[in-house]
Write a structure and sequence with these properties.
alpha/beta, Spore Coat Polysaccharide Biosynthesis Protein SpsA, Chain A, seven-stranded mixed sheet, three-stranded antiparallel sheet, globular, Glycosyltransferase family 15 protein, Nucleotide-diphossugar_trans
């Protein structure tokens, strides 16, 4: 009998097949290279992925303490939300509090393209003792730019609707992807923070998190953290990699040595294998996105119009940016954070499962299923 997970993967496989038919300063993220010699920078010293060594015991703290010797990072928990998302936000935030933040008390930042309602503010604020901030997204950071050819964009949307591309007909979804790719880190409420944890409505956190992941990022000099990685829908990004290659050729000095290109490409950068980190969960260093390299990269991509003429997502854009402008060891898999966003989940295995008192079924784990890219992440360190 086919298990529910196997059924999900079978259906997804059919869908994807159909779609396929149709030093940390801003300057410190990049050093000289080019597309033609990039392959030489991909493979560095061979060692196991850092997450397999586990989090050092000294980071785990007793119930009555917030962090080792009272330390905290300069960080915030960030959510892009609308008033209509309130019930899903309550579900996610309650789990975030119970599993992690009631102990560590990091502030929340909520961003919206419209004003938050008083009901939204009250119900969200009632869930936590931490500071909660509510921000309005500037109009120029959210809506489709005037320079976009709307006739061309609409023709593309209509074509995607005919071909049943997910969110293919949605302008608001494209606005969101563009905002998350190039503007969220510029918001006034985030300007004084260095690290962020992004999460979204209607997700599950399966495990107690008895250490501070922001301190792991800070102390181990990580810049990007993820829990799920997978392949992007090919129909949404037909020309994205052409633009990436063009940017690399024009800006060879911005690409980091010992980068994570091997996660993105199986031939040294000639083609894109569509692997990306699922950005509905990410813990990151805001200075990565504020860096000269990434800011130029986003502006270049934005000028191509692919967020509207196609349906470029923030997940592949962030993933490509992190892989190109950071070293591979600066990208971290949070193996012990149990997480689900439909239809995929990461469920910690073995000792990590027991240590976190996780309530997910260990057999229901996406890590090494056929549509996961975690094996490609692991291979970078072998």
């Amino acid at each position: 009998m086919m298990t529910p997970w196997r059924y999900v993967f079978l259906v997804l496989g059919i869908v994807i097949s159909l779609h396929s038919l149709l030093s940390f300063t801003h300057e410190g993220y990049g050093q000289a290279t080019s597309l033609t010699n990039l392959k030489g920078h991909i493979y560095g010293e061979t060692f196991e992925p850092p997450y397999k060594a586990g989090v050092p015991d000294e980071y785990y703290v007793p119930e009555e303490h917030a962090s080792p010797v009272g330390r905290k990072a300069n960080a915030a928990i960030v959510m892009l939300a609308r008033n209509s998302d309130l019930n899903g936000i309550i579900t996610s935030m309650k789990q975030m509090e119970d599993r992690f933040n009631k102990k560590f008390n990091y502030p929340y930042v909520f961003l919206n393209e419209a004003e938050f309602s008083d009901e939204f503010k009250k119900r969200v604020s009632d869930l936590t003792d931490a500071e909660v901030k509510f921000g309005l997204i500037p109009r120029e950071h959210w809506f489709q730019p005037e320079w976009i050819d709307e006739d061309k964009a609409k023709a593309s949307r209509d074509d995607m609707v005919r071909n049943q591309v997910i969110y293919g007909g949605s302008v608001p979804y494209r606005n969101m992807c563009r905002f998350n790719s190039g503007f969220f880190y510029r918001h006034e409420l985030l300007k004084d923070y260095k690290y962020y944890w992004r999460y979204v409505p209607d997700v599950k956190f399966f495990c107690d998190l008895d250490y501070d992941p922001f301190l792991i990022m800070q102390d181990q000099q990580k810049v990007y953290g993820f829990t799920v990685s997978l392949y992007e829908y090919e129909a949404t990004i037909p020309t994205l990699w052409n633009a990436v290659r063009e940017f690399i050729e024009e800006n060879p000095g911005l690409v980091a040595p010992d980068n994570a290109m091997a996660f993105l490409s199986d031939d040294g950068g000639k083609t894109y294998n569509r692997c990306h980190f699922w950005s509905n969960f990410e813990i990151g260093d805001l200075d990565l996105w504020r860096s000269e390299a990434y800011m130029k990269f986003f502006d270049f991509l934005d000028s191509k119009g692919g967020f509207y003429y196609e349906r470029w997502g923030d997940a592949p854009v962030h993933s490509i940016g992190a892989a190109l402008f950071a070293k591979k060891e600066q990208i971290h898999f949070f193996n012990d954070i149990g997480y689900r966003h439909e239809p995929f989940q990461h469920c910690p295995q073995g000792d990590a499962h027991k240590k976190g008192k996780c309530w997910c079924d260990e057999s229901q784990n996406f890590d090494y299923e056929w549509y996961s890219c975690l094996n490609r992440y692991d291979k970078m360190f072998q």
